[in-house]
Design goal:
The protein is an alpha+beta fold. It is built from 18 helices and 18 strands.
């Protein structure tokens, strides 16, 4: 059974049970600076899980494309990937544990034919400190469905609790959270590796068990006094990796032959090697290339271009890691652009935009691959300086990692081949840990000032962002399209398509237009409208993204210009957007005058502006 078949079955299954199918959001979160990428199905739905009414109803289902940058180093085993699709279904104050667990079990066993004897589940063991009880309710439901008690395990808040802030003690007052119940598939033919512990269990990393789904029951809210109370509206948030569920449905402990088959076939063709007939190290190389290039294709398709900062850094890193491992397989020519067709063909029905953008994506990858192969030559020459003995210090190894993109395993391998007696691996790991901690600290700081708090300052800058995009189109031309955004309480940032540095006069004119619209006190109006009608009105929207039949649109001015009024066509700005926004542009003046602080290049054909209200 293929991923496309399972995706279709899942969406149909829950649609038949009253769920509305919603489209996948972009991998670049819209107006959410708390994270660089969409990494789960629930991420675009957080406002609705926190109480906001969803325009499509209380029961939702989708397949969300996701990217987790933190998993890059994990790729290479039988199950980890950076890019994946997350099958998800939600109840927003509607059904709860009994329906969720029963339906999911039915989908796995009746629809996909997975033997219940292969399934293990985990539940929350409770938290005495906060008087949160053990989740025996979920366990009893699993038993009634046919999961034996011996295959039900309990874990603490580090495994079976979900909130945005983490464990209960880390949650601030007013934060919702709750227990979750994870489902695992057991590959009985895989022997337990004792290096992961004396006994195997569902959360063991030996490869015998694979997590295939997690039902989160958002049940509690933290009080001001630190205690927990039940939420008045309790939600269900389910997420299951499509690739892993496909592996389970095929009893295939390796997700790559079932979820990356066309890419593996392409690599076999250009390398002259067979995936299952090579050494374990070469199998790992196949997996890393397949995952990284699929992820790169999707990220580029969603507007991210290789660069040295933020999202672009990860696209560049994916491609460069792929090149390094391609060399291991004997692929020394620029061939990665050929993978684009294989990926696009895999997803031609679910994500047709990849086919539409195929030529452009292939060009971006080809340019980056060619550029890195030149860098790689310099890196090898740099490594050759240490040949013939001596030690490669942690600092030198880390420079090869950061400057030339050499992963640690390649550094060790190349050092051994060149007669370098020792590599300071532990020192390298310490430097890498420090580097990751700095990055993590930066992300946490970004979260604290992020749009997720919906503060007045952030909301005003969000509206200013709309004014700015339209002003850029007026001044620079209709070719200007948004390629990314980041909005905090302090400033807004927009990435947009434009090939030249803006002149001082152009910047001043854009500022003048935005401030003019602020002082015109234009109303900001939210309207739900048919997608086709919004497109006919010329509403700005993300290229290649899939939208539901009914969309939320924000228009700015003139007075009385709601969606049905003739004056609507005179609106200054109209965009597909989920909000939030001010009700009148004059409110922006409370934060100050609009001012562009910086205009710079991000990548070829993409510029960036940082601006404030001060």
């Amino acid at each position: 059974m293929s991923p496309n078949e399972i995706r279709a079955k899942y969406l149909k299954f829950f649609e038949e049970r009253g769920h509305t199918v919603i489209p996948s959001a972009s991998l670049v979160p819209e107006n959410d600076p708390t994270t660089l990428f969409t990494g789960s199905g629930m991420q675009p739905l957080v406002p609705y899980l926190l109480g906001k009414d969803h325009p499509m109803g209380k029961r939702l289902v989708d397949s969300q494309k996701s990217f987790r940058a933190g998993d890059i180093e994990e790729v290479g085993d039988n199950r980890h990937t950076t890019f994946f699709e997350m099958l998800g279904n939600w109840s927003l104050g509607d059904y709860f544990k009994k329906e969720q667990l029963g339906w999911y079990f039915e989908f796995l066993t009746a629809e996909l034919g997975i033997p219940k004897e292969r399934l293990w589940v985990t539940c929350f063991e409770g938290e005495e400190k906060f008087d949160i009880p053990k989740d025996t309710e979920s366990a009893e439901i699993w038993k009634s469905l046919g999961i034996g008690e011996e295959r039900i395990r309990y874990y603490g808040s580090n495994k079976n609790w979900w909130s945005r802030a983490g464990a209960p003690e880390e949650m601030p007052a007013g934060e919702p959270g709750g227990p979750d119940s994870e489902t695992f598939y057991e590959f009985e033919e895989v022997e337990h590796d004792p290096k992961y512990g004396a006994a195997c269990h569902p959360n063991c990393d030996c490869g015998r068990f694979m997590e295939i789904g997690n039902s989160v029951f958002m049940q509690y809210i933290k009080q001001q006094d630190g205690s927990f109370a039940l939420l008045p509206k309790q939600n269900v948030d389910f997420g299951g990796g499509l690739e892993r569920i496909t592996a389970a449905a095929n009893n295939a402990s390796d997700v790559f032959p079932v979820a990356h088959a066309p890419i593996i076939s392409y690599l076999e063709k250009v390398s002259g090697k067979k995936y299952l007939e090579v050494s374990p190290l070469d199998i790992r190389a196949f997996r890393i290339i397949a995952d990284h290039m699929k992820a790169a294709v999707f990220l580029i398709g969603d507007g991210v271009r290789p660069s040295n900062t933020e999202r672009g850094y990860f696209v560049r890193r994916l491609i460069r890691r792929g090149v390094l491992y391609a060399d291991r397989l004997g692929i020394t020519e620029n061939t990665f652009s050929g993978i684009v067709g294989a990926v696009a063909d895999m997803y031609k029905e679910q994500y047709p935009e990849l086919t539409a953008q195929g030529v452009e994506i292939a060009q971006v990858i080809a340019q980056e691959e060619e550029r890195f192969r030149k860098t790689l030559e310099r890196g090898v020459k740099e490594l050759a300086r240490f040949a013939g003995g001596g030690e490669l210090s942690a600092q030198d190894a880390f420079q090869l990692f950061t400057t030339y993109g050499f992963p640690l395993e390649l550094i060790i391998e190349e050092a051994g081949a060149r007669g370098i007696k020792q590599v300071d691996v532990e020192g390298f790991k310490e430097l890498l840990k420090q580097h990751q901690n700095l990055s993590r600290a930066g992300s946490e700081q970004k979260f604290k000032g992020g749009l997720a708090d919906t503060s007045e300052k952030t909301t005003r800058l969000h509206t200013a962002h709309h004014l700015l995009l339209k002003a850029l189109q007026f001044v620079l031309g209709a070719h200007v399209k948004q390629r990314g955004s980041n909005i905090t309480q302090e400033r807004l940032r927009i990435d947009f398509s434009h090939g030249e540095k803006m002149t001082k006069e152009q910047i001043e004119l854009v500022e003048h237009i935005v401030n003019e619209k602020i002082h015109e006190n234009l109303p900001v109006i939210r309207t739900e409208i048919a997608r086709e009608d919004a497109e006919k009105l010329g509403a700005e929207h993300e290229f290649g993204a899939k939208y539901p039949d009914k969309v939320s649109v924000y228009s700015i001015g003139p007075e009385g210009a709601d969606i049905a009024a003739p004056e609507f066509e005179k609106a200054y700005s109209i965009e597909f957007c989920g909000g939030p926004h001010v009700t009148n542009t004059g409110e922006l003046a409370k934060s100050g005058v609009f001012k562009i602080q910086k205009e710079e290049a991000v990548s070829a054909g993409v510029r960036r502006i940082k601006a404030v209200l001060q």
